[in-house]
Amino acid sequence: MVAPAKQVEVGDHHWVDARPFRAQLCYLMASGSLSVEDIAAIAGISARLARRLLHGRDGRQLRRISPDTARRLIQISDQQVQALRRIMVPAAPARLQLRRLYRTGWDDLAIAERVSVAIPELVELASGTDACSLLLTVRLSAAARAEDNIRFRNRLGCGSGEAAA
């Protein structure tokens, strides 16, 4: 359980101490054997923000985060992340994300490596299976969102899309 975070007022915004939420992020990752990107997708925050919370920026740890980010992270339980592999959901949303990745040039091998699944599982999904794990849906959605961010940044000429993933 995370202790209540101290709020800091900066201008018109209230910020909270990042330390307990960094600990929550690490705990959730360990509880479900998930990546920082997986937890970011589950929480509905950007993978970039989650990586900065975990690793810092330019060698310095984040000292505070927005209350919204804090709320999103604290609402996820270890039981929820542990259940992601077991919960079966309709496959249509995952199939949509898979098709988005195909359209941008990804092949089965690249997708399988990115989302940590076996190629036959992707082939089965593409072929029209009725259900898949919630974790696969989360990972495919995160991969498609990261690809969209990279393509958007490249279109703007913002340099390497790797930082936006």
State the main characteristics.
mainly alpha; 434 Repressor (Amino-terminal Domain); 2 domains; globular; 5 strands; two-stranded antiparallel sheet; 9 helices; three-stranded antiparallel sheet
Topology of this protein?
Blueprint: E1 7-10, E2 13-17, H1 19-32, H2 36-43, H3 47-55, E3 64-65, H4 67-74, H5 78-83, E4 88-90, H6 92-103, H7 108-115, H8 119-127, E5 131-133, H9 134-156
Antiparallel strand pairs: 1-2, 2-3, 4-5
What's the short story on this structure?
The protein has 165 residues and is mainly alpha-helical. Helix content is 59%, strand content 10%.
What does this structure look like?
The protein is 59% helix and 10% strand. The chain is mainly alpha-helical and 165 residues long. It has 2 domains: 7-83, Orthogonal Bundle (434 Repressor (Amino-terminal Domain)), CATH 1.10.260; 88-159, 434 Repressor (Amino-terminal Domain). The strands form 2 sheets. It has a 3-stranded antiparallel beta sheet. The protein has a two-stranded antiparallel ribbon with strand order 4-5. Residues 8-12 and 161-165 have low confidence and may be disordered.
Assign the CATH architecture of the largest domain.
Answer: Orthogonal Bundle
The largest sheet is: 3 strands, antiparallel
Reading the helices and strands in chain order gives EEHHHEHHEHHHEH
Q: List the total number of helices.
A: 9
Mean pLDDT: 88
The total number of structural domains is 2
CATH overall fold name of the largest domain: 434 Repressor (Amino-terminal Domain)
Strand order of the largest sheet: 1-2-3
**Spans with pLDDT under 50 lasting ≥5 residues?**
8-12, 161-165
- Which CATH first-tier class of the largest domain would you pick? Mainly Alpha
Give the amount of beta strand, in percent: 5-15%
DSSP helix fraction: 55-70%
Shape type: globular
Decide which structural class fits the backbone: mainly alpha
Kindly, what is the distance between the CA atoms of the first and last residues, rounded to a whole number of angstroms?
Answer: 30 Å
Radius of gyration: 17 Å
Please count the beta strands (DSSP E, at least 2 residues each).
5
